[in-house]
Amino acid sequence: MTVKQQWMIVLGIVVVLLGGAFTASHFLKDELTSVTVGSDAPGFAAKTLAQPAAMKSLSNYRGEVVLLNIWATWCIPCRVEMPSMDSLHQALGPKGLKVVAVSVDNAGQEQAIRDFVQEYKLGFEVLHDESGSIQGIYRTTGVPETFVIDRKGVIRRKSIGAEDWNSEGNRKLMSMLLDEPRP
User: Fold this and answer.
1) Are 137 and 168 within 8 A, CB to CB?
2) Of 38, 47, 61, 143, whose Cβ has the fewest other Cβ atoms within 10 Å?
3) Yes or no: is domain 34-179 CATH 2.30.30.100?
4) Are 165 and 88 in contact (CB under 8 A)?
5) What tens digit of pLDDT does each residue of 106-125 get?
């Protein structure tokens, strides 16, 4: 085998590897990116509960501090934490905090979600992602999972399971983020 043939084999292998890497990154891009503290919050789309329903996405909250909660009506820990989220919203919503709870209940469960909102007297925005795609986008392991997103769209905190969102520590974090300048 000549030197030229050896280099052609090496070049062929490099081309195959680069092609494989490009293909993998194209088809597996969601699986290759992580959703962790310090990463940019990925976009999502979910419907409002209003009639007629409208679509909302993370871009609707650009420049805002967002507490993004992924939940379901059948989730007992979700029921535990909702009152503390509402208390946090009452305290810091007037200062600009956006609490957005995205239900991943199945299609056709809009009335159950509305009933839940009414039962708990929730004053923050509740959306419905009937496909549950937000769970894949945010790589959740269950419900509830909550992401605190700063004004630049960066995840500053991730919480798995029920939490007291109106605790002193969480209020301090939200207040600190609300004090940051708008981008």
Assistant:
1) no
2) 38
3) no
4) yes
5) 999 999 999 999 999 999 99
